[in-house]
Amino acid sequence: MNFSRILRPSRVAHAHCDGPCGVYDPASARIAAEAVLSMEKKIAALGDAQDAATINTRTRFIVIKEQQAELAKHELNVLWHDYFKPEHLANFPDLHDTFWQAAKLCSKNKTEQDPANGEALLAVIEKIHKAFWASKNRDVAFYRAS
User: In whole angstroms, how far apart are CA 74 and each of 12, 29, 95, 121, 123?
Assistant: First the structure.
């Protein structure tokens, strides 16, 4: 049996990005960030109670918050790396800094528990939303589902 053929396929596929479908929308990052903020508020509302039920609930909320923050970071990275191109920098010169701030806020929301961090993340995602739709010459309102 020729193992080199199995380990090294003869056909290689190439794509210019992770998903060459061309379908992008910052809404998925906004929804994940809203879930982060919701969990931040729910954690804060629990207070410092240490009974088993509260500890279990807090733990679940923290897990959800961290998963959603990671999802928001992923969705933002797809926009940053796959949708926005060098020519967009002419109209949005602070684009890289804006995405860097958003990524840092996703991480901050994972490691801290403060609803202000969730609000800050949504604010920077709103800025990205506006740049994204302006790049398509469309006026799409930013809204929150919650």
Answer: 26, 8, 17, 14, 17
pTM here?
0.84
Tokens representing 19 are 């998903």
Q: Which two tokens stand for residue 109?
A: 């929301």
How far apart are alpha carbons 65 and 106 in whole angstroms?
Answer: 10
CA dihedral (103, 104, 108, 110) positive or negative: positive
Q: Which domains does the chain have, with CATH numbers?
A: 25-135 (1.20.120.400)
Q: Which tokens is 15 given?
A: 């794509």
22 pLDDT higher than 90:
no
Distances (CA, A) of 86 to 23, 37, 103: 19, 32, 19
Closest by CA to 126, choosing from 71, 69, 76, is: 76
Backbone angles phi, psi at 12, to 5 degrees: -125, 130
* Model confidence pLDDT, tens digit, residues 87-139: 999 999 999 999 999 999 999 999 999 999 999 999 999 999 999 999 999 99
